[in-house]
Amino acid sequence: MSSIAQLHTSTFSIQDLELKLKQVRLAHPEQSLPSPPSDSGSSSPQECQPEESYFLRSLKECLTIYEEPSRPRSESLLLLSDEEVIMLANNGNIATYALEKLFGMDQLERAVRIRRALISRGSSTGTLESSSIPFENYDYSRVLGACCENVVGYIPIPLGVAGPLTVDGKQYPIPMATAEALNAGGGVTTVLVGDGMTRGPAIDFPSAIRAGKAKAWIDSDEGHEILREAFESTSRFAKLKSLKTAIAGRTLYVRFATTTGDAMGMNMISKGTERALEAMQKRFPEMVVLALSGNYCTDKKPAAINWIEGRGKSVVAEAVVPGHVVKTVLKTTVKDLCNLNVKKNLMGSAMAGSIGGFNAHAANILTAIFLATGQDPAQNVESSMCMTLMEPTGPDGEDLLVSVTMPCIEVGTVGGGTVLAPQQGVLDMLGVRGAHPQQPGQNAQTLARIIASAVLAGELSLLSALAAGHLIKAHMAHNRSQANTPAASVPATPGAGLAYRV
Ligand code: ADP
């Protein structure tokens, strides 16, 4: 047997030894330092010795214990210390990615701890093992095979809640939003104008003519029906809504759009699309499916097709803010807000050639809620597409009509990161956790409505702050006592309007 110092150092310093001991202590928080079992394998890691008597067995001894055929690997691993498992992994006997599978469900945290050590010691910085990234006391059984691979811990994110915001007559606690002004006008009303997750495979044909024939077939009632039947056979929640086809050269793209119940739906639609393409292959044996996702979907990339056709939940959220609230709470005017919205969110974004970016900061609010509720944060690319509109309303145009139009809110309340306990806590708080008991899909749709409403509050908040800031600047630039302080943004065109009082 070799002591750690002997094993690892031909030339070692006291610091090296201390570091090694620290690593071992970190690897065994529950048991000071373990002693190795006897060759018969009768001892367990629970039977530990004082620190001074810590030993690493040789690779050969460890391998003999690990590969003992009379017991399962998970039991053999219990007879090895963390450092010994690390040694086997470094020697190629244990795959780092398979630690959880080898250790079994009741040793998941140990698998994570060992992976941290392996990755840390193999990295140039070597910090992970002793870093402040937490890994203890987490329910890894929900993670395994569901939402993360090669787990080394978890990242806690501060969670704040504002509101409550009234959405469609119900009050919801909303993270980060200007709820007060919106509630004053009766709250936010939402309209769900579409619900369909999409997948767009790329399919090669020998020639453009053959691709064209396949396109015509898909567009025909017969082709549509065959594909629909195959697609829907894969899930009781997947109902095919549309098939949109496009050709480039000899490559055919088909955009499958489907409802997915309360799931965000990427897994579900991928399964359905695969089955539908199998049915199509029978009709067109020469076709070659290049990729189930041919980027005609379009998932997690900016694309006009999403902005135009919608993806996931398409929602409009609208509210009226009474004029006196605009003045007293938002500290601006309807006219200034509308002017700013046109110049910034509409014209400015048009000047920048934006696709779906006709808003101030929809992504801030949406991504915060995505993270808190276990959504796929990479889908914020298209989910944050938003057009913010503002116009005067009411008999004298004194009130503000404000809306956000968001065609691609991709959310679910089952599957993915929604299976994690803290994320489920947030979904519970919003009353939308899991599958809706009566109407599959309604929980996910409600979540999309809540997100759009929160985005609306965020838009109002930022634009008001900008408009109010502008007014304050105008105020400071001119004499406070001056009656009609001209606002800097009033056009010089004759008859274009009066200056504001600030
Ligand atoms: P995604 O398709 O978003 O990637 P998952 O495949 O992780 O999601 O989760 C969807 C799974 O949940 C499917 O197997 C589906 O059968 C099941 N499920 C149970 N209830 C529902 C529901 N109300 N809506 C959608 N899926 C549901």
Automatic annotation (TrEMBL):
<dbReference type="GO" id="GO:0008299">
    <property type="term" value="P:isoprenoid biosynthetic process"/>
</dbReference>
<dbReference type="InterPro" id="IPR004554">
    <property type="entry name" value="HMG_CoA_Rdtase_eu_arc"/>
</dbReference>
<dbReference type="GO" id="GO:0004420">
    <property type="term" value="F:hydroxymethylglutaryl-CoA reductase (NADPH) activity"/>
</dbReference>
<dbReference type="GO" id="GO:0015936">
    <property type="term" value="P:coenzyme A metabolic process"/>
</dbReference>
<keyword id="KW-0521">NADP</keyword>
<keyword id="KW-0256">Endoplasmic reticulum</keyword>
<keyword id="KW-0560">Oxidoreductase</keyword>
<dbReference type="InterPro" id="IPR023282">
    <property type="entry name" value="HMG_CoA_Rdtase_N"/>
</dbReference>
<keyword id="KW-0812">Transmembrane</keyword>
<dbReference type="InterPro" id="IPR009023">
    <property type="entry name" value="HMG_CoA_Rdtase_NAD(P)-bd_sf"/>
</dbReference>
<comment type="similarity">
    <text>Belongs to the HMG-CoA reductase family.</text>
</comment>
<keyword id="KW-0472">Membrane</keyword>
<protein>
    <recommendedName>
        <fullName>3-hydroxy-3-methylglutaryl coenzyme A reductase</fullName>
        <ecNumber>1.1.1.34</ecNumber>
    </recommendedName>
</protein>
<dbReference type="GO" id="GO:0005789">
    <property type="term" value="C:endoplasmic reticulum membrane"/>
</dbReference>
<comment type="pathway">
    <text>Metabolic intermediate biosynthesis; (R)-mevalonate biosynthesis; (R)-mevalonate from acetyl-CoA: step 3/3.</text>
</comment>
<dbReference type="InterPro" id="IPR009029">
    <property type="entry name" value="HMG_CoA_Rdtase_sub-bd_dom_sf"/>
</dbReference>
<dbReference type="InterPro" id="IPR023074">
    <property type="entry name" value="HMG_CoA_Rdtase_cat_sf"/>
</dbReference>
<dbReference type="Pfam" id="PF00368">
    <property type="entry name" value="HMG-CoA_red"/>
</dbReference>
<keyword id="KW-1133">Transmembrane helix</keyword>
<feature type="compositionally biased region" description="Low complexity">
    <location>
        <begin position="38"/>
        <end position="50"/>
    </location>
</feature>
<dbReference type="InterPro" id="IPR023076">
    <property type="entry name" value="HMG_CoA_Rdtase_CS"/>
</dbReference>
<dbReference type="GO" id="GO:0006696">
    <property type="term" value="P:ergosterol biosynthetic process"/>
</dbReference>
<dbReference type="GO" id="GO:0005778">
    <property type="term" value="C:peroxisomal membrane"/>
</dbReference>
<feature type="region of interest" description="Disordered">
    <location>
        <begin position="26"/>
        <end position="50"/>
    </location>
</feature>
<dbReference type="InterPro" id="IPR002202">
    <property type="entry name" value="HMG_CoA_Rdtase"/>
</dbReference>
